[in-house]
Every structure is written in C-alpha cells, then in structure tokens.
Amino acid sequence: MADFSYIARNIGGQRVEGLLSAATQREAVSALAAKQLFPIEVHAASKPSERTGSERVRPQVMSQFYLQLAALLRSGVPLLRSLEVLGQQTTNPALARVIDDLHSRVTDGQSLAEATARHPKAFSELATSIVRAGGEGGFLEEALERVAKFTDQQAELKSRVTGALAYPVFLAVFSVGIVCVLIVFFVPKFEALFSRLRARGELPFLTDWLLWLSNAITSYGLLIALAIGVVVLLVRARLATEAGRWFLDRWRLKVPQAGTIYRNLAVSRFCRVLGTLLTGGVPIVKALKISSDSTGNRVLAAAVNDASENITAGESLATPLKASGHFPSDVVEMIGVAEQSNTLETVLTNIADSLEKQTWRKLDLLVRLLEPVMLLVMASVVLVIVVALLLPMLKSAMAL
C-alpha cells in the first residue's frame, strides 16, 4: 500500500484535497470514483504508506473496543462521534492515543480501515482487512463483531498454549539450576578427599570426569558462558536470514509429536482466518494471501500462496493444498467437499474448531508425559553425581 495525495471535485463542483491509501494509482482513482469524487490530480505522496503506529494494546482490550464500537454504530451513533465517545471512556492510555489518531484520520477523510492500518501493533492485518470489507460492503458493525470474536479466540489459544508449557519450562529451569549448584558448590569440596586416589591412579573414571567438569566450570565458567552466548548469537543471526527462517519452519514441521501439534495449530489458525475473511465478503484470492501469513510458517504460507495462484487459473483450493503434502488429508477432503457444496466459510470454521480440540488433547497428553520424563532425567543426573562421589569411598571400604 502507498499514500496518494489527490485533488478532486465533488458532485457540487467543490474542490477537495486529501490523502488516501491504495496499492496503485489506478486503484486510487477507482477509490475516488467510488466516493463520487472526480479526480483532477492523483500522485504518490512523498512517503509510502507504512504501518508505523508504535502503540501496543493487549488483545483483550482491543476485543472490547471492537464490541463497543459495533454497539455504538448499531445504535445509530455516527463513526466520528463513536470514536470520540470511546476515546473519552477508555482507561487504557495506549488505546486512548490510538483512538485519538483514528478520529483525526477519519476526520481528514480516510476510511476506518485506512486509519487502523497505521497501527499494526494494535490492529492486525486480519482486523484491518475485515474492517475494510465491512466498510465497503455496508456491514461494518457485523465485521467489528467478527474481529472481536476472532481476537478473543486467538488470545485464548495463546493463553492455553502458554499455560500448558509453563510448568514443564519451570521444571527444566529448576532442574538445570540444581545440577549447576551441585557441580559448582558441592562437588569441589571432595577434591582434596580424592586427591590421593587420583595420584595413585585409583580414582574411578566417573568420579574423575565429574571433578574435571566441576573444575572446568569453576575455573572457566565465564569463558564457557561467553562462548555459549557467542554461539547463540551466531545461530540467531543465521536463523534471522531468509534461508535460516525457512530451515527453522521446515524443522518445526518435522519434529516428532511436537511438529504435528505445531502444524495443526497453524492449519487451524489459517482455516479460521480464511473462513472469517470469506464470511466478511473478502474475495477468496485476496483472503488466501492475507490468511497465508496467519499460519506463522513460511512453508505453509508458500503452499497457500501456490493455491491462490491455482484458484486464479480456475482450479479448486483442495487440489494444491493436497499436493503440498503439508496439510492433513482429512482437512483437504473436507475443504474439497465444502467447495463443491458451496459451504466453504462454514466448513473452514468447523475445521478450525475440530483441529483445536484434537490439538489440545495431544498437547495435554504430551505435557503429562513430559513432566515425569523431566523428573526422571533430573533424578538420573543427581543419581550420577551421587554415585560418582560414593564410588571412591565404596572402593576404599572394599579394599580394607
């Protein structure tokens, strides 16, 4: 999208100047014609239309904003007045600044979708697309309610994933901390006790290795930490490249068990977004391009983009998705049947609900298995440390 400044005349012959966002100059002229304006000059503004808003607003707060705005519009309150009321009522400073900017831009002649597009940290691309479709199709109130529902669903999904993984992550960090404390502070106290056995070459290999590890961490801990930090930075820099991101996205899909869960969540997100956009009146090719980014995975997004190209050529959606090999076969079959019966919007939402339920069951089972496995690993490491310290004593006692 780019900014185009224009000079036009309305039906009454009055001169009108302003700024609008469009992909091309031709689309800008068409947008003016849709507003019953006759363009005199239309040219690209000095700066591109970038989504530069820096205000970040929590999804739960944005959901309430969508619902409140929809309620006001349904009650017959004009858009500008609705924004003014919500700006005065909100107790969230960041949202208040966003609403104030929306009010200013709408007052200057921009549509609500064009104004929201300037705040990517508050309004997602999906929200902007649905609002744009609602504004152009005359169902803005319904579009806002759909965005609110989708925002709540995505926030709940993220919260459930975070909650499910919180305890395993805490357990892993706690286990590593205990092992580090044992090796750094507890094991060195046995160094002097085992020095004679080491001098005679009678120190067990496991004990000798544990003492060596303890000395290395104690003496070169900072250097080891620095080396690990450098490696992490290099890996992150590599993964930040386009090739690295592709590698990471492919790897995520191939991880045993976790890859299936990750893929199902991504496909569920894609189906829900696509279904919401189609229900909101967005053309399927444009809806596919928007929903491809919602997968959060470049491999899946590329498969969806290929599908959109096939649809432009007159083919079905299910065929290229099946050919990619990245979408579950049952999902592809349901999409194929839905296309034939012209119920794609409803079926996509049902697919998203079904996939989420299946994924939660798998995730819950994986987390339940992960907890005892981590406890077992932690107990095994502690046992190895204890055995390594007791072996020399047992060996000396047996020698006596």
Written description of the protein model:
There is one protein chain. The chain has 400 residues and is mainly alpha-helical. The protein has three domains: 2-44; 59-123, no CATH class; 150-400, Type II secretion system (T2SS), domain F (Receptor-associated Protein). The protein is 75% helix and 6% strand. It is built from 16 helices and three strands. A three-stranded antiparallel β-sheet has the order 2-1-3. Strand 1 and strand 2 (15-22) form a beta hairpin. The longest helix has 56 residues, at 344-399. The radius of gyration is 30 Å and the shape is elongated. The N and C termini lie far apart (85 Å).
Features:
400 residues, 6% strand, Receptor-associated Protein, mainly alpha, 3 domains
